[in-house]
Amino acid sequence: MGKSNQTVRHINSRRMGKKAAAVVLSGALFIQPAFGWGNYVYADAPVESTSGNTYAAPLNSLQKLSEEILTSGARLVTYQYALQRGTKTYKTRMNVIEADLSNPYIKLDVMTGKDGKTATGNPVTKMTKETGAVAGVNGDYWMMGSDQVPMGGSISKGEMITSPAELTGMYAFAVTKSGTPTIDQYRFTGNVALADGQSFPLSGINKMKYDKEPGKQHSHINAMYVYTSAWKGMKRPNDTTTTPTEVLVRNGVVEQISDMGALPMEVPEDGVILRGHGQAAEFMRRTMQVGTSLKIDYKLLSQSTGQSVDPSSFQMMISGHTLLVENGKASSFTRDTSGISGSGVTARTAVGYSKDGRYAYIVTAESNSVSSGFTLKEFQQALVQAGIWKAVNLDGGGSTTMTNRPLGDFDTKLTHETKEGGNNVRSVVNGLGVFTTAPAGKVKGMTLSGEKTLFIGQRATYSMKAYDEHYNPVDASNLDVKWSSADGKMKWDKDAFVAQSSGKATIVATSGGAKTTAEVTIIGAKDLSSLQIATGSAPLSAGASVPVPVKATLLNGNQATVPSSAVKWEIRGFNGKVEDGVLKVNSVPEGTKIGYAIASYDGLRTMIPLTLGSEKLIENFNQTNMGVSFSGLPKGSTKGQVSIEGGFGGRGANDKVLKLSYDMNAGGSADKFAYAELNGSTGMELPNGTSGLKFDVYGDKSFTNLRLEIHDANKKIHYVNVVESINWEGWKTVEVDLSSLGVSYPAKLKRLYLVNFKEDQDERATEGTVAFDNLIAQLPAGSSDIFPTATMDLTVNSKSSKVNGAVKKLDVAPIVLNGSTYVPVRVVLDAFGGEALWNGPAQTVTVMRGERFLEMIVNQKAFVRNGSRLASDVAPIIRQGRTLVPLRFVSEQLGLTVKWEQNTKSITIH
Predict the structure, then answer these.
(1) 531 CB contacts (<8 Å, ≥6 apart)?
(2) Residue 31: what pLDDT?
(3) What's the count of helices (H) and strands (E) in the chain, helices before strands?
(4) 528-587 confidence digits (pLDDT tens)
(5) What gap in Å lies between CA 796 and CA 68, rounded to an integer?
C-alpha cells in the first residue's frame, strides 16, 4: 500500500538505440525520402507548407495537414479547423495522438509531477524526458495556490497515486490491464480496520484541501486520509485550518504516532501515513498505539454502473473535468464550465477513444500566433469530426502542452507553441504519456533531421537518423555522410549549409551506396509582408549596447525571428556595428542629434532611430515622497496592500521598490483587479511626447495580466496592456509602446494594476506579490529638439517658396501630373529635416525622419513604411534626369500636414 509510483518509469524502454547494432548502409537498404522532416507524411494527407501556408479548409470541418509516426502503434495527426465567429473566419490547429491499444508494445500511463511525486509541478517537456515517453500531454486540473495535486483520481500500473475528489460531474479516462479504454465518474470508498473489528472510513489518498460537493464541506474536517510515498513534502496537505494527528504504518503495523501535529518526516517508500482530524483523530487516539495491527482497504465506485472497481484492475487512470463527447456526439456538459472558460476561446486538451475501443485519442487544440483556439462547444464539434466516440476534457488554456519524439530522434520536443508563447511551458501536476516497450529491431530506414525553413544567409546543420522496424530510434552516429545541394540554393561550408537564395532547395545526403534527399524552403523578401526591429529606438551615446532582434511577418500572417546572420546592417550618423544581433555604438560625432540603424533582408529594409536622451528615468522610488495606496475590484472582495520599501526581491535595503500584494480569493467568478494607486488622485507625470515605458517587474508566476492606466490632457483614459501573463518569478524588464495611443500631453500615469479575468481564472494564482522599479520614459526620435518646426508655402510651376515666411529658391518647381503634385524629396527635407538616400541601380528613394522610414521605387505604387509593404495610388517619377516624389503622399507619411489651395495652385505644409 505504501508504494505508489515507484515503478512508473519506462526510462530505458526507448533508449535502446545506443545498444543496437551499428548501422551499415548499402544500396539495398531502403532510405525514406526526408520523412517530412520528422513529420511522416502519408500519400493521402495534404502537406503543410514549409512557409506556413495551408490549404483553405471549408468552414466547420477538419482538414488534415500532416501525419507523423511516433512509434509502432502511435502516430501524430495535425488538423486545421476553420470556423466563423461573427463576420470573421478563424482557424485552429488540432493535434491528435492516435494510440493503438491493441498493439502489444503501446502503453499509456500517468506522468506525475517531478520525479513521479505528487504535490509537485513539472512541465510536460520534462515529464516525458524523465519517464521515457515518446509523447505526452498535460493532464488533470489542480487548485492554483494550493498543493500541486490533481483534483481527480490517478492510477499508474494498478497503484493509486491520488483518489478522486468528491466533486460533481468530474470524469476520468482509464485503460484496464486488458487494454480496454473507459471514461466514467468514480467515487472513492475505503476504511481502516483494526484486528478487533473497529474501523473508520477513509476519505481519500494523497489529497489536497478542498471543498466537497455538494455542501462545500471542508475535505479534511473529521476525516482520515492516507498519504503514500508518492506525496512530496511534509505538509499533508498544506492546510492551517485543521490540526492533524498522524500515524506511520509499515507492513500493516503502527510504528509512530504524532498527536495534534504532523510527523516531521516525508512518507517512507515502504510505508504510509494516516492523517486524521476531529472525529478521525479521536478514533486514532483511542484505538491506535505503536504495535497496533491494522488493514487499509479501498476501492472505486463507478457512478455509471454503481459497481465497485478494484484500482489494481487499471493499467492507468487520469482525470479531467466535464464529459465532451458521448456515443460520437457532443454531450451535455456534466459540470459548470464557467470556471474553465467554457465559452472563452483558448487552448484545449482532451482524451478519448474510438467506438471499438481500439484507439485512444490524445488531443490538443492550439491557441497561439498561428491558431485561434476553441470554445468548449467548438472543441466538441472538432472532436466529433475527428471520429472520437467518447472524450473527457483535460486542463487547458496556458496548461495545454504536447510533446512528441520525431522519427529517428531519441528525445521528445515541444509539438507546438503554447498559449504562453514560444517555448514557454507551464508546470503542471501530471500528464498523460505514450510509451513503447518494443525491443530493438532491424533497421528499417533513415530520415533527415534539421531546419525545413531557412532565411537567406542562415547556417543550418542536418543529421541523418535511423529507425528500426518498430519506428524507434537507432544509433546512426557511425555513418559517414556526404552532403550536397542539387540546385545551388544551398552552399556547403565546412560543417553546415548556408542558404544562398530564396525558393525551394534540395538537400542531398549520401552514405555508402545509399542516398536520400529532402526539400527545404528558403524565405525571401517576396514571401514577407513586413520586417520589424523588435527594439523601437536606442540611445545615441558612445558605449551603448542594445539587442536588435529582427522579426519577419510572412504573407500568411505567421511570424519568425530572422537569424542575425541573415540580416545586413547599414549605420548612418554614428560609428557602430551590429554583432550577433546586438547594436553597439562606438562613437558619436559632435553635434549629432540623430542616427539610424538600417536592417536589410533580401532587399526589404526597416530601421530604428538613435537619439540623444531617448530614455529618461522618471522614478526609482529611492528618494520619492509619493503617496501610494491599494484599491481593488470587486470592491470589498479583492484586497491587498501597496507600499514602497527596500530589501525586496534580493535588492539592497536602500534600493526601494513599489510593492503590490493582493488577495483575490473572494468574489466568486468575476473579473478581478488589484490596483497600485500612484500619488492618490494625482498620478505620476510623464515627460511630454513619451512614446513608451520601460520598467522592472518582480513576477510571482501568477499568470495574471499586468496593465497600466494613463490620463491625458483631453481627459481621455488609456488602459494599456503591458504583459498578457506574469509567467515568471523574479525580476524582469518589460517595455510597452505608447506611440499608437494618441496620448495628449501633459499626461499622467495614474496606476499600475493586475487583472485576473473570469476566463481561465482557474489557471491563475489568486494571491501573491509583485513589485515595480526603475520606471523609464522612452522619448520619440521625432521630437522638436531634433527636427525644425516649420511652415512651408509652395506654388505649382514656381521655383519660389517660403519657409517660415522667408523666401527660398527651388532648383525644380513643383509640377502637377494626373492630379498629384511632384517635387524633389529634398524640398521637403530641407525645410522639415530628415535624410534621403538614392539607389540608382534599384531606382529606389529612401526617406528617414525620426521614427519614420519610407522607401519607394520609381514608377511603382508599392512602397515600404517602417518595414511594412503597402500600396499607394501614386509613385515617384523621373523628369529631366531628376527624381520627383508625390508631395502630399511623402509629407503625410513623414507626419506632416498638407493643405491645397485650388484657386492659387498653392500648397502649405506644416
Answers:
(1) 550, 551, 552, 553, 562, 599, 601, 604, 605, 606, 867
(2) 37
(3) 5, 75
(4) 999 999 887 788 889 988 899 999 999 988 888 999 999 999 999 999 999 999 999 999
(5) 67
Q: Which of 156, 162, 40 is nearest to 107 (CA)?
A: 156
CB 484 within 8 A of CB 503: no
* pTM of the complete model: 0.77
Answer for the pair 140, 150: CB distance below 8 angstroms, yes or no.
yes
Give the Å distances, CA to CA, from 194 to 253, 297, 310: 10, 11, 21
Is pLDDT above 50 for 659?
yes
Within 140-185, strands assigned E span: 154-156, 159-162, 172-176, 181-184
Q: Each residue of 239-280: pLDDT tens digit?
A: 989 999 999 999 999 999 999 999 999 999 999 999 999 999
**Residue 118 gets which letter from DSSP?**
B
β-pair type (204-205, 224-227) = parallel
What amino acid is encoded at 527 in this protein? D
Neighbouring C-beta atoms of residue 213, cutoff 10 Å:
14
Tell which phi-psi region holds residue 312, choosing left (phi > 0), alpha (psi between -120 and 50) or beta. Answer: alpha
Give first-to-last CA distance, the chain, whole Å. 83
- The span from the CA of 466 to the CA of 817, in Å, is 67
Phi/psi for 868 (5° steps) reads -100, 135
Name every residue whose Cβ is closer than 8 Å to that of residue 742 and which is 6 or more positions away in sequence: none
DSSP label of 287: H
Contact 155, 311 (CB under 8 A): yes
Cα 52 versus chain centre, distance? 18
How big is the CA angle at 594 (ends 592 and 598), to the nearest 5 degrees? 125
Please report which residue ranges of 204-292 form alpha helices under DSSP H: 279-287
- With CA atoms as reference, report the closest residue to 865 among 579, 532, 521, 417: 532
Cα 30 from Cα 297, distance rounded (Å): 56
Backbone angles phi, psi at 480, to 5 degrees: -100, 100
Instruction: Provide the greatest CA pair distance for the chain.
Output: 115
Between 664 and 422, where is the model more confident? Answer: 664
Using one digit for the tens of pLDDT, what is the confidence trace for 483-529? 999 888 999 998 999 999 999 999 999 887 778 888 999 999 999 99
